[in-house]
Design a protein that fits this description.
Elements lengths: L1 H16 L9 E5 L40 H8 L15 H5 L25 H18 L4 H10 L1 E5 L2 H8 L7 H4 L2 H21 L4 E5 L18 H24 L4 E5 L1 H10 L8 E5 L25 E3 L7 H13 L5 E2 L3 H6 L1
Parallel strand pairs: 1-2, 2-3, 3-4, 5-6
Antiparallel strand pairs: 4-7
Helix pairs in contact: 2-11, 8-9, 10-11
């Protein structure tokens, strides 16, 4: 009887929530504040953005997204015909929502477990993967414990991974709090981070995931938080490029050694650098400061609660001193969704989900 009920529920569920032909049945998101859709709202941490002026251009207002509006992962979900993935920590998340994807990203989190400890309690990548593992039995129940249907589903969903910025900004570049800069050269540290990501991606593969989009780090040295006067912090950008190079090599290696997998690398560094080097064709006029009120870009990187942001938000690349505006997020989303191999290698998202 229980099986019949489950199968009946699944039939009704699929008929209501089925994605367009060629789209994945769901999207699962791992990362940091560039992707967090509200996980940090429900955990005891200092890294929160569930207050104005965050969300000023988002339909639901402040939701915990670190932007004025939509994140890149939100826009990609829309392009795929999927709803916005709900945050894992939201106790109201329902099983039908879980089927179409979950957002595990946590602001201030890093690849390394200790990263972001000064913000008290962000969810590191390893724990995000554990949270995904906890989600699987709930999805499995939707299939009436049908193992072959569950396997087919996991093979088709899209996993998005965008993390690593905090391992630099809130770890390696903070010798007052972390010993990593004295323990590792920049090259050794980048290799350490990518080795950790490799373990987590293989772990997801072993759970049944086959389609991955892995995002490079953007030019952190060019964020308002890191600018040296009007110039980018080249030292920081060189560290980021070491990480990105190792990450791209990992993606190539995974495609060679994980049977039936499809792993892609999105060159966010190149996408954002194009905008910052030549902003006017993209509609931007301000790239050296954030749009919302920030007291001190290096110390207080987030928006001042209740402060009135700039009016011309579409002309700003950065919302606060670290995070992109919705306008810049849109460029990253569009180029990773349909860009050439110089942007997304070896497959863009459109190609990835149709394999």
């Amino acid at each position: 009887m229980g099986l019949l009920i489950n199968l009946g529920f699944l039939f009704l569920f699929l008929s209501k929530f089925m994605s367009p032909v060629g789209a994945p049945p769901g999207m699962f998101i791992f990362g940091d504040s560039l992707s967090d859709s509200g996980n940090n709202n429900f955990i005891p941490t200092l890294a929160k953005s569930n207050y104005p002026p965050y969300g000023i251009d988002f339909p639901q207002g402040p939701t915990g997204r670190f932007s004025n509006g939509k994140l890149a992962v939100d826009m990609i979900a829309e392009m795929l015909g999927l709803p916005f993935a709900p945050p894992f920590t939201d106790p109201s998340m329902s099983d039908p929502q879980i089927f179409q994807g979950v957002n595990y990203a946590s602001a201030a989190a890093g690849i390394l477990d200790e990263t972001g400890k000064e913000y008290m309690g962000p969810i590191p990548l390893s724990k995000q993967i554990d949270n995904f593992r906890q989600t699987l039995p709930r999805i499995y129940s939707l299939f009436g414990q049908n193992a072959s249907a569950m396997t087919s589903y996991l093979n088709k969903v899209l996993v998005m991974v965008s993390i690593g910025s905090n391992d630099y900004l809130n770890n390696y570049l903070r010798p007052d709090l972390y010993p990593t800069s004295s323990q590792y050269t920049p090259l050794a540290f980048s290799n350490l981070l990518v080795q950790q990501i490799a373990q987590q991606l293989v772990g997801l593969y072993n759970m049944g995931i086959r389609r991955f989009m892995v995002y490079a780090l953007g030019p952190l040295g060019c964020t308002p938080n890191q600018l040296m006067g009007q110039n980018c912090n080249d030292r920081v950008n060189q560290m980021v490029m070491l990480f990105n190079s190792a990450l791209r090599s990992l993606v190539i290696d995974l495609n060679l050694h994980l049977p039936a997998s499809a792993v892609s690398y999105a060159d966010v560094y190149g996408m954002v650098s194009d905008v910052l080097i030549n902003p006017s064709p993209y509609g931007f006029s301000v790239t050296s400061q954030g749009c919302c009120g920030v007291e001190n870009g290096r110390v207080q990187w987030s928006c001042i609660a209740g402060a009135a942001p700039c009016n011309n938000r579409n002309s700003y690349a950065f919302w606060d001193s670290l995070h992109p505006t919705e306008a810049l997020n849109r460029i990253v989303a569009q180029r990773s969704f349909m860009g050439p191999q110089s942007d997304v290698y070896p497959f863009n998202i459109q190609q990835l989900v149709s394999i």
